[in-house]
Design brief:
69% of the residues lie in helices and 0% in strands. With 430 residues, the protein is mainly α.
Length: 430
C-alpha cells in the first residue's frame, strides 16, 4: 500500500507544473531564509515586546538611536523581500517552464513579471498618476497566483516559440512576439476586472479577515475549523504566517487578562477556550502547521540530503515561530506528502489542550507572551509559569514529532525514487 502511495506521489511530482514549482521554491528559499532571520531579529531583538530584547536587556546597553537604525534596516529587508516574493516566483516559474521545453527562458521570465505588474496595477482617477500597485498581488500572500501565472506564460512560449537551439540569434526576440502580446493582453484584461469592483478587496482581505475571526471564538470546535481553513490556505501559498505577532487585544482577551492580573490566577478566567490564546499556546510550535515538529522529525533521520540542509538552516527562525523559510524550502507549500499532518495535527493539539483545560488539569493561558518566544515555551509563559503546562507542551511536541515521522519517511522515499528515475533517464538520454 505504501509503495503504491509513493509511486502516485512520484507521478504527481513529475507533472510539469509541480516540477517547475519545486525548482522555483528552491530558488526562493535563500530569499525567504534571509527574510525570516531578518524578521526574527527585528521582532525579537529590536522590538520592546521582543523575547530577546527583554532577556538580554538590550535597551540597557544599546543606544536608542542604534535601535531605531537597526529596526529600519531589518524591517526594510523583511518588507521588501516578502512584498516582492510573488514577483520572484512568477519570474522563476515562467523561466523554468520555458527552459523545460527548450524555449527562450529569459524572455518568458520577463514577460511573466510585466504581466503580473499589469495585473496588479492600481487604477486611479488620473491615468497620469505615478505607478501604484495592489501590493497584495505581488507578495508571498499571492504565491499560488504568481506560480500559476508564471507557468501559464511559460506554456505560451512552449506553444508559440520554436526551440531555443533551433533559432538564429536574430530571430529569438522576434519569435517571442505572440506569447508576449497574449500575456500582456491577459494582464490588462485581468487588471480591468480587479479594478472594476470589490474583487481585490475580497481577495486581499480574506486571509486577514479569517485570522481576525479565528482570534475571538470561545468555542474550541470553531477554532479548529478556522485552523483547518487557514492551514489549507498556507499550504496552497495563499497566506503568510500569523505567528509573527501575538494574539489580538479583543474584548475577551482583555477580560481574561484583567481577571488573571486581578486574582493572580489563570484558573477561572471567563473565557477559558479563547481561540487566539488556545492556538498560540498549544498549536504554534514553529508557526503554522507545527513546523518545528516536522524539522525535528527530519533531523532525526540519518543522511545529509538537501532536505536535511534546508531543515538545519531553517531550524533557528522556526524555533522562534518565524517559519516561512521552512514552508518554502522543505517544501511544504503544494507538497501533498505533508498536507494531512500540516492541517490536522494542530487541530489534534487544540482538542487535547481543550480537554485538559475542561478537566481542570491545566489552567487557561491568558497572560501576554513576548514576540519571538520559542514555541514550546508559549503555553508555559502564558500561564505565568505553570509547570504542568510546560510538561504537557513537551509531551504534545513529542507526539507531533512522532506523528510527522511516517510522512517524513514517505517524503524521503518519494525523493529517492525521483532521483533514481532522473538518473536512469539521464543515462538513457546520454
Amino acid at each position: 500500500m505504501q509503495t503504491k502511495i509513493v509511486m502516485e506521489l512520484v507521478r504527481f511530482n513529475q507533472h510539469s507544473f509541480i516540477r517547475v514549482t519545486r525548482q522555483t521554491l528552491a530558488a526562493l528559499f535563500p530569499w525567504a531564509l534571509v527574510a525570516s532571520f531578518s524578521c526574527l531579529i527585528e521582532k525579537s531583538f529590536l522590538n520592546a515586546n521582543g523575547f530577546f530584547y527583554n532577556i538580554l536587556v538590550i535597551n540597557a546597553w544599546l543606544p536608542l538611536v542604534w535601535q531605531r537604525v537597526l529596526q529600519y534596516i531589518f524591517t526594510s529587508i523583511t518588507s521588501v523581500i516578502f512584498s516582492l516574493l510573488g514577483i520572484f516566483a512568477c519570474y522563476f516559474n515562467a523561466s523554468h517552464t520555458a527552459r523545460l521545453y527548450k524555449k527562450n527562458n529569459l524572455q518568458a521570465g520577463m514577460t511573466a513579471v510585466v504581466t503580473l505588474l499589469l495585473l496588479a496595477y492600481r487604477y486611479g482617477k488620473n491615468p497620469q498618476q505615478p505607478l501604484d500597485f495592489h501590493l497584495g498581488l505581488l507578495g508571498g500572500k499571492s504565491l499560488l497566483l504568481c506560480l500559476v501565472l508564471g507557468y501559464g506564460v511559460g506554456q505560451l512560449y512552449r506553444r508559440f516559440v520554436p526551440d531555443y537551439d533551433e533559432q538564429l540569434v536574430s530571430d529569438r526576440s522576434i519569435s517571442c512576439f505572440w506569447p508576449l502580446l497574449i500575456s500582456l493582453a491577459a494582464g490588462v484584461l485581468s487588471a480591468a476586472i480587479i479594478n472594476s469592483g470589490a474583487f481585490y478587496r475580497l481577495y486581499a482581505g480574506s486571509y486577514s479577515q479569517l485570522v481576525t475571526a479565528s482570534q475571538d471564538p470561545h468555542n474550541p470546535f470553531l477554532t479548529c475549523l478556522f485552523t483547518i481553513v487557514l492551514g489549507l490556505m498556507d499550504w496552497l501559498g495563499l497566506g503568510m504566517p500569523v505567528s509573527y505577532s501575538g494574539p489580538a487585544n479583543t474584548p475577551a482577551y482583555v477580560a481574561n487578562l484583567n481577571y488573571a492580573l486581578t486574582h493572580g490566577s489563570a484558573w477561572n478566567v471567563p473565557y477559558k477556550f479563547l481561540g487566539s490564546t488556545l492556538y498560540n499556546s498549544f498549536a504554534n510550535f514553529g508557526g503554522d502547521g507545527l513546523v518545528l515538529a516536522l524539522i525535528v522529525a527530519i533531523l532525526l533521520f540519518p543522511g545529509n540530503t538537501g532536505t536535511h540542509r534546508v531543515a538545519r538552516w531553517s531550524a533557528v527562525p522556526t524555533l522562534f515561530n518565524f517559519d516561512y523559510s521552512s514552508l518554502i524550502g522543505l517544501p511544504i507549500i503544494l507538497n501533498p506528502v505533508f498536507l494531512v499532518p500540516f492541517i490536522f495535527l494542530p487541530v489534534i493539539n487544540l482538542l487535547l489542550a481543550t480537554a485538559m483545560i475542561a478537566l481542570h488539569l491545566l489552567p487557561a493561558t491568558p497572560y501576554p507572551v513576548l514576540l519571538g518566544t520559542p514555541g514550546p515555551l508559549l503555553g508555559f509563559i502564558a500561564t505565568n509559569g505553570n509547570w504542568a503546562t510546560l510538561a504537557f507542551t513537551i509531551v504534545l511536541l513529542l507526539v507531533d514529532v512522532f506523528a510527522y515521522t511516517p510522512f517524513v519517511r514517505m517524503a524521503f522515499a518519494v525523493e529517492n525514487e525521483l532521483v533514481r528515475e532522473a538518473t536512469e533517464s539521464g543515462e538513457q538520454h546520454d
